[in-house]
Amino acid sequence: MAEKISVLIPREKVEERIQEMAAQINKDYEGKQLHLITILKGGVFFACELAKHITVPVSLDFMQVSSYGDGTKSSGIVRIKKDLDETLEGKEVLIVEDIIDSGITLHYLMPVLEQRQPASLKLCALLSKPDRRQKEVDISYLGFNIPDEFVIGYGLDYAQKYRNLPYIGVVELDEE
Ligand code: IMP
Ligand code: MG
Question: What pTM did the predictor assign?
């Protein structure tokens, strides 16, 4: 099966929006130090682009989680595959995630991180599919709401491919 890719959000629009998000973050965290937690692997490209436009002091940490399921249906069980290197106590923490889909992952993860007593804990996501939501998640900084379509690029993969595309695309399976 060949895969056709169409552009959903072009590179310039993605980057422009990330700059706007960074500007808002710079305002909100003025005079503070920000601890960015990137969710591997998908959040990496977004986090890098965002961090380049943040002007308050930034520290970085990384976490990898997986939700069990067959890919299309998540079981609701979330496992921490790689935990953070540093403590969160007293820090202004911002989670950076590629996309909020069912909401299951972050709905589980946020209370877990809250228990580690950060000064504050907020979520920043590049994309959200509100039509797919099963669990409520409070997104403080959102790039784009998108329709219920499987997207790739800017960190998002289809079978581990396409993460490096500099735009948000949609995969169309072409049965030939
Ligand atoms: P949630 O727990 O259902 O919100 O799922 C979050 C994770 O599913 C994201 O961090 C992505 O890794 C993955 N995901 C959800 N939708 C897409 C998509 O359209 N393309 C690629 N990955 C996706
Ligand atoms: Mg992810």
Answer: 0.94
